[in-house]
Structure formats: structure tokens, C-alpha cells
């Protein structure tokens, strides 16, 4: 990385929570247009920055390309180990940071922000002020992500994966009701539905054991919560991606929401759900089946701000 006197602002935002010690933290770094600086913003440089922050995700946001007239912001997502095409909580955190005025030159905030990711996909996010329903007053943020309907694994594979889950939870008699694999862009995600009597909140999980689910990388454990104000709870583990547990995972809900909406006959309705990691997070989700869209709503809070000197 070249050494120069360039300063670029960053903020840390906890997504899907309004608690300074809850939700999922994301670092948002606002980059200038490459034509306006001599800073090295190659992929390798961005990866080094993400590794140095050592947070679940670092989101790099840059102004629209000079030759584009669509107002779409450019966005890239990096874990400490690799670049990802999408991070739901990172996108929500970036929206919060922009709406709070941290992005230089972004003076007029629209209701809907659009971002273009590394694959050229346009992602939408926006702010809702007292617009998430009477029970969810205040400032909420909303994402629209592509849905993903899981495919059930074979009986032999279910047996193999159930044994791995039992080892991870320290229970040889764990009851697994369903295991499905994501398709397309999320084909390395696996959804593991536990019996509602199994405990997720506060459970100690041997994340090393979950490496055995390979070639799957993202392991989503979930169960129904019929006697509470939530429809389901979940936890997400991705040790093969350098992320033992993700405190609150947006993209996991692209699988969770269609599954549970179908299971509970609530397609097109808002579902209140929780991710019960140690930090925890609250979401309002909805599956718009005809559009092929999952809407995720959540709160966010800025905890840190500063400048990178690059």
C-alpha cells in the first residue's frame, strides 16, 4: 500500500440492535472516487484493511462511478479473510451510516439507497421512520434481498449432518427435524431445523465440529418458538470462512424467512424473529414470494467514528 497523506472516514455500526453491546458490528469505510486520489484501493489493500480491523465485516462504500448517471453507490464486503458478494448486516449498517451523514458529499438522503456490488448486482436499502408498524416505532432500516428456497438433503446426508450437529452441541440425542441446502448463490449454506424443545439460546457450540459439514460453509441452526412473541430463533456459524459465529446474519434470513413463512402459513406477513447469539439481534422479516424478495428490517446504532490515514 502506498504511503500518503490521505484520510478517509470510517464508522462502526451495530446492526439489528440499538444496543451499543448488541447486534452485529460492521465497519463502514467511505472511499473517494479513484480518480480523485492516489491511494491504492486494490482488492489486496482492501483485504489488508479488513484484516486489520478484525471485525465480522468491513464495508467499503464509494460514490457512483464518474461515467454513470444512475446515482448508484459502489459497495464491497470483506471479512478478515476474504471478499464476499453480499453481507446483509453490513448493508444495513452502511445505510445507517449514510443516513446519519457520515458519507462525505452525500447531502441528500433519499428514502431508498441503491448499491452496486462486486458482481454488478444492484441492492436496495432504506430508512423507515415510524414506518415498521405500530409495535416497532422509531428509526428502522429495511433491506430487500433475493430469496432462496432450500432443497432437502438426502436421508444419508441428513444422518451424517445430524451426527455433526450432535457433536457440536454436545448431545448425541439431538433431534433434527429438517436439513436443507441453499441453491444458486447460497449453495454453500445449510439450514438445520431443530426440534422446538432443543435449546439454542445460551447453548455452547463446538464450532470446530461444524467444519465437518463441508462442502457447506455457512451453518444455520434454527427452531420454532411457538409460545413466545417470536416465530423462530436462529444462530449462524461459518468456521471455514474464519467466522466461528456471526452475531446476526442478514443473508441467513434469505433462507430462514421463506422456510418459516411457508411452515407457519404466513407468506407476505411480517414475522418477528431473533438471532440468539451471545450479542443477539432482533429482526422483522417478510417473504414476498411473487417478487422473489425477502425484506429484512432492523435497528442500528453507531458506536465508533474516526479516520483512516492511508
UniProtKB/TrEMBL annotation:
Keywords: Isomerase. One of its GO terms (cellular component) is cytoplasm. InterPro entries: Phenazine_PhzF-like. It holds the Pfam family PhzC-PhzF. It comes from the Eukaryota. The keyword Transport does not apply. GO terms for molecular function: isomerase activity. Belongs to the PhzF family. This is Diaminopimelate epimerase-like protein. It comes from Serpula lacrymans var. lacrymans (strain S7.3).
Amino acid at each position: 500500500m502506498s504511503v500518503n497523506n490521505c484520510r478517509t472516514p470510517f464508522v462502526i455500526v451495530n446492526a439489528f440492535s440499538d444496543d451499543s453491546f448488541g447486534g452485529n458490528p460492521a465497519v463502514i469505510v467511505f472511499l473517494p472516487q479513484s480518480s480523485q486520489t492516489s491511494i491504492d484501493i486494490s482488492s489486496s489493500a482492501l483485504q489488508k484493511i479488513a484484516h486489520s480491523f478484525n471485525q465480522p465485516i468491513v464495508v467499503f462504500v464509494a460514490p457512483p462511478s464518474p461515467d454513470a448517471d444512475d446515482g448508484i453507490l459502489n459497495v464491497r464486503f470483506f471479512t478478515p479473510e476474504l471478499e464476499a458478494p453480499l453481507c446483509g448486516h453490513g448493508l444495513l449498517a452502511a445505510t445507517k451510516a449514510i443516513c446519519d451523514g457520515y458519507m462525505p458529499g452525500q447531502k441528500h438522503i433519499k428514502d431508498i439507497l441503491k448499491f452496486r456490488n462486486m458482481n454488478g448486482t444492484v441492492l436496495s436499502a432504506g430508512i423507515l421512520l415510524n414506518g415498521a408498524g405500530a409495535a416497532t416505532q422509531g428509526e428502522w432500516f429495511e433491506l430487500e434481498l433475493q430469496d432462496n428456497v432450500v432443497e432437502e438433503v438426502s436421508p444419508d446426508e441428513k444422518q451424517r449432518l445430524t451426527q455433526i450437529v450432535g457433536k457440536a452441541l454436545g448431545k448425541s440425542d439431538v433431534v433434527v427435524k429438517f436439513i436443507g441446502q441453499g441453491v444458486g448463490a447460497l449453495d454453500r449454506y445449510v439450514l438445520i431445523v431443530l426440534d422446538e424443545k432443543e435449546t439454542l439460546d445460551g447453548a455452547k457450540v463446538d464450532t470446530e465440529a461444524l467444519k465437518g459439514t463441508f462442502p457447506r460453509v455457512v451453518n444455520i441452526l434454527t427452531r420454532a418458538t411457538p409460545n413466545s412473541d417470536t416465530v423462530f430463533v436462529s444462530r449462524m456459524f461459518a468456521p471455514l470462512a474464519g467466522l466461528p459465529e456471526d452475531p446476526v446474519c442478514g443473508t441467513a434470513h434469505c433462507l430462514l424467512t421463506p422456510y418459516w413463512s411457508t411452515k407457519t402459513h404466513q407468506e407476505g406477513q411480517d414475522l418477528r424473529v431473533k438471532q440468539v447469539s451471545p450479542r443477539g439481534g432482533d429482526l422483522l422479516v417478510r417473504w414476498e414470494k411473487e417478487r422473489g424478495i425477502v425484506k429484512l428490517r432492523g435497528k442500528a446504532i453507531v458506536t465508533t467514528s474516526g479516520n483512516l490515514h492511508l
